[in-house]
Write a structure and sequence with these properties.
Layout: E1 3-7, H1 11-23, E2 27-31, H2 34-43, E3 48-51, H3 60-69, E4 78-82, H4 87-96, E5 100-103, H5 108-119
Parallel strand pairs: 1-2, 1-3, 3-4, 4-5
Length: 120
C-alpha cells in the first residue's frame, strides 16, 4: 500500500493519525515539524502527506508552499489537519495547494475517506 508521512508535533495526534493510516494497510512515518517533513519528502518516495498547520521550524502553510514550488513534489497530495484555522485560512491553504482540510479533533471515518480520495 502507500507510504504516508505525518507532519505533526503533538504526540497524541501523531499516534492517532499513524494508527488510522496503519489500520488502512498503509505505512505511516512521523515527522515532528515541517522542516523535517520537507527534508524527508525530498529523499523518500511518499504518496501522501498529512500535516498540521501549527508546528515549529516550518509550519504547515510554509511546507505546502515549499512543496508546490518543488517540481519533484508539486503533485503530492496534502491533507491538512488543524483545530486552529478559520474559514479564510482554510480557503488560503487550499488555494496554496492543500488537497483537503480536516478539522481536529480527527474523526476516524473522515480521515479514512480523505486518505482514500487523496490516493485514489
Amino acid at each position: 500500500m502507500a507510504k504516508i508521512l505525518i507532519a505533526e508535533d503533538d504526540r497524541i495526534s501523531q499516534r492517532l493519525a499513524a494508527r488510522l493510516v496503519e489500520d488502512m494497510g498503509h505505512t505511516a512515518f512521523v515527522s515532528p515539524n515541517g522542516r523535517h517533513a520537507y527534508d524527508a519528502l525530498r529523499v523518500n518516495d511518499f504518496q501522501l502527506l498529512l500535516t498540521d498547520i501549527m508546528m515549529p521550524e516550518m509550519d504547515g502553510r510554509q511546507l505546502i508552499l515549499a512543496l508546490r514550488e518543488d517540481t519533484a513534489l508539486r503533485g503530492l497530495p496534502v491533507i491538512i489537519m488543524s483545530a486552529v484555522v478559520g474559514v479564510k485560512e482554510i480557503a488560503g491553504l487550499l488555494e496554496a495547494g492543500a488537497t483537503f482540510f480536516l478539522a481536529k479533533p480527527l474523526a476516524a471515518g473522515d480521515l479514512r475517506e480523505y486518505i482514500r480520495r487523496a490516493l485514489g
